[in-house]
Write a structure and sequence with these properties.
The complex is a heterodimer of chains A (345) and B (327). With 345 residues, chain A is of the alpha/beta class. Helices cover 30% and strands 21% of the residues of chain A. Chain A has ten helices and twelve strands. In chain A, the strands form two sheets. In chain A, strands 6-7-8-3-9-10-12-11 form an eight-stranded mixed beta sheet, sandwiched between helices. A four-stranded antiparallel beta sheet of chain A has the order 2-1-4-5. Chain A starts with 11 loop residues before the first strand and ends in a 26-residue tail after the last strand. Chain B has one domain: MetI-like fold, CATH 1.10.3720.10. Chain B is 72% helix and 0% strand. The chains are: A alpha/beta (345), B mainly alpha (327).
Chain lengths: 345, 327
Amino acid sequence: MTDLMTDAAPVVDVRDLQVHFKIRRGILATQTVRAVDGVSFTIAPGETLGLAGESGSGKSTVARALVRIHHPTGGSIRVAGAQTGRLHGQDLKAYRRRMQMVYQDPYDSLDPRMSILEAIGEGLAVRGVARARRRAQTEDLLRRVNLPATLTSRFPGQLSGGQRQRVSIARALAVGPEVIICDEAVAALDVSIRAQVLNLLKDIQADAGVSYLFISHDLSTLRFMADRVAIMYVGRLVEYGTSRQVFSAPQHPYTQALIAAVPDVSAGAASARAKLTGEPPDPANPPPGCPFHPRCPAAIDLCRTVRPELRPKAGGQLAACHVAPDEPGAAPAPATPSGSEVTTS
Amino acid sequence: MTAPLNQHLPDPAVAAAQDPAEAGLEAGLEAGAEPTAVTEPHLTRRALASLRHDPVALISLLVVVGLAVMAVFAPELAPRNPLHSFPNGLAADGAPVHPGSTFLLGTDAEGRDVLSRLIFGARVSLLVGVVATGMASIIGIIVGGIAGYVGGIVESVLMRFTDIVLSFPILLFCVALIAITGPSTRNVVLVIAFGYWTYLARIVRSLVLSLKEREFVTAARTLGVSHAKILRRHILPHLTPAIIVYSTLGVATSILIEASLSYLGIGVPLPQASWGQMVAEGQQYFQTAPWLLIAPGVALIITVLAFNLAGDWLTDLLDPATAETRR
């Protein structure tokens, strides 16, 4: 259990985060979509937390709530201990300087009409770097991401996907953040370039001590990058533990199915090689009980009526499953509130 | 966007802005050239190439340029004073003089030189067309841009107002406004601008709606870039091709509206020459002096046709719809 505990104060502390969207159904009727519904996690300084799940599970919504593109409708996000509610003006600007994001699509995340100097300069300007010093600093940043400093006058259309993604990383670094969210940041890249960018991210982490929230649907990438892993399903965490715990002994049937679907990640011998069938449910209308039960090979009657909470399981990690055996000696159900940090050790 | 006369020409800013998507790897990676050096000739080259295969576009562009020259240098080009009634401008029986060696396009009922009036009339037409379209574009960009970017109640209010203005037939709308303000060249410009901005407002709004969802706009927000800067640096440059194309077409429409208002006698006041008003005067003498109607009529047709065809060519060249999705 000590693996889950982080000694240093977390740089990001998300508790019971909710992002609900109201969508119109007809003229008067509105319906609430619980895109993120009670997600809690922490990220320690210099640590990488991996976040995985199928598309539509709410991973990107978590990221967008963290950088305040979406406003959280509930819960709290603390960055470096400071409580952050609804932010405006200078506070929001200061907040965003601590948390940056690298987006998925290297062909759309850079303005095609802005030179590399202007794109990275925009980040430097936010940090208050004088115009005269931006070129030199941009060149430094390009070198940090292993790009030639001569690229400053180029436009994104003249760069390859991998180069663009490095520019995106440089732009995020320009602001001097403590946390960088990588939302499927390598998903659009060729496999060979993907490895280079992942290694670059690791090097930057070793140098600058930044933390990553690394969002990916690709478990082999996460296994390479992440110290700890959280698995999301329809707006909630279903499993949360160290990379080793989750990948070697996944407790939740959903995690087991995800891992089984990856050819080169061998699931632990104990886990059934579950095959994932069907589609994830509509988050506007999730099934009662455990939202995974219609697709779950191990579902029991309880799963159809009672929603399981995240609880310490046999492997040491947290999982939200009635079937997976609890950690020996853990307090009887329902002791652990949804997603809270583990208190047993 | 203060409506320069050369609006129809490929703007270097657009060329630079347009190009990166096209420039490709081969142009970019080795040579250390400045971006403008890499990108600008590209659009120019594309423009020249398309003109070589498109004589209609070439001619219409030449006509537009010729009209601009004519308007600017009207005092130098016109053979006579357009306002002066020449004693030899009327035949012995008081009839207008036929086109001939003295008066190339003949004279009108007042004994004034039709060619000179036509040349000075180009001034009025282009001035009204360009300034009115420029003002309409500015209003349209501001209203459409704010509506699209801010959204919500602001968008609803602005776009409903736009719809209200749009629901009037534009000529009727202008006639009604002129009836209130009284005819003068300035009022004609203002009235056309106020009737015409709605079209651009709707186009700009729809473009901004899709642009603001693009990842580079989200990325700029994440960086902490202010909304004003995002609009100026990330949104506006992407609107330029559409604005240029639409403004070119707008000039043709504005010229027609001005001519219609002048024809109805509520446009550019006498004695200033305007093509619409020349058509109105000329039609009384159509049987005895047909050139009075034909000359300004043909001038109008050629001008409007040239601007429309040049606009079509620009649409193909800049292709705002696909340019926006093309990345």
